[in-house]
Amino acid sequence: MDQNEQQDTDYEAPKVEDLDVKESPATTAAGAAVSPPA
Amino acid sequence: MGVKLELTHACNLRCGFCYTDSPRHTLARTPELADADWLAIVDEAIELGVLEAVITGGEPLLRRELTLAVIERLDAAGVGTTLNTNGWFADDALADRLAACRGLSVFVSLDGATSATHDGSRGVPGSWARGVAGIDRMLSRDVPVRVVHVVTPDTEPETEALIELCWQLGVKSVQMTPVVPTGAAARGGEWKVDSARLRRIADRAGAQWPGMPVSVRTGSVNDGMGPTRRTPLSLLVRPSGTVRIESINPFSFGDARRDGLASCWARIAEGFDAPELMAWDRKLGVIGDYARQDVVPYLDDDVPADAASTSAAARAAALSAPVPAKARAREPGPYASVAGAHAHARELALARRYRSGAVRVSGQHVRIPATGAITRLNATALTVLDACSPGTAADVMAALRAAYPSEPPDRIERDVRGTIRSLAARGILRPALAAGDLPSTADGTVDLPV
Questions:
Q1: Which of A33, B19, B204, B213 has its CB surrounded by the most CB atoms within 10 Å?
Q2: Of the candidates B169, B171, B59, the residue with the CA atom closest to the CA atom of residue B123
Q3: Which residues does residue B177 pair with via DSSP β-bridges, in sequence order?
Q4: Distance from A23 to chain B by nearest Cα, in Å?
Q5: What's the pTM value of the predicted model, to 2 decimals?
Q6: What is the per-residue pLDDT across B433-447, written as a single tens digit (0 to 9) for each?
Q7: Pairing of β A29-33 and β A16-20
């Protein structure tokens, strides 16, 4: 596998995900994902 | 409570559907309040506790210093303010001053994806290019720009291409507005469009162009219904100082300069549901056509609420008043085709420079101190953030295309622009020319509640 093919496989659409922050940072959990188009 | 201030009758464009009939008043040089009168009215509105204000015209930026003074005064008092403009006069200096107003939202009229369609609709060659340039200058400073698209049988074929162009530019939202048949539109013309089709376009656009709400405004020629009669939440001040409840209600309740806003407001609260006015409202609901009413907003002169009618002679004079001719189109030019116009919007968007917002980045997490929000980015989104801090969308594309040469460039470009829009909406990225550390939070309102 050449390098280009390796990189092609690795491309992942950018993802921007808002986390649901409850009262303290320790309770941070994944919330509803808001992502740019795939 | 809200106020809508029509700072001027005058306009540099010649729209055949102008609901305020501004081209006619521009030609007639209809008198309007002096700057000092307007500033006194604004001070009283602030004193009375208004929460929202809409600054409109005509084209308010034809009275540039007054418009800026009014906006700055309202913004300093914490009033959510919306400016309605055609964008023609939005130069760098103006955009800088607007960017300093944190509660301001700007609505710019754009009727076509191409200069040919927009300029035809607006009656003045060059208005598309000037409007788009103004939009870009304001977005480059993080002024929230929302596009109002007047949909007519002539402009509707380009509606979907216009929505795409707005997304390319980075516009915050698009509102499709069928013609409201008052003012110039009440003189005649074919304005009706298929509302159901517009709603389908809006639904599709919501999925296709994320982060940019697209809506259809009601209260237009298609709805065939008058204003709902309930206690008003806002008032409108005409360029002459005459006070009305709102745009689609033609009756006046005093004069802001002579009587003061508080007195006019008391008259509205007392008399908004007077029998003569309710009769006008009921008739509108039945015939569904402003042009066939006894009193037509903006076509007829402002009619005092205690008179509630106009004469046949006055109507004839309004219908026959001279209006300026539309300017003839120039040579087609580079933006007369959808492809050329989209290429121009793409060029503007790719050249826009960004910087990091006031955030703390740790690994794949970003915290926005002002709100406490935490956002997680994957590796590709982090690359976008890094390349834009500072940098342009073109810089990001170059970085990703070098890293993933086999990935289709179109896909990378769309991903990059979507991600920049997403990061900018959260304040993680800011346009390099933006004022301050935090983005404006203004959602704005194209009009006030009725």
A1: B19
A2: B59
A3: B150
A4: 10
A5: 0.91
A6: 998 877 776 666 666
A7: antiparallel
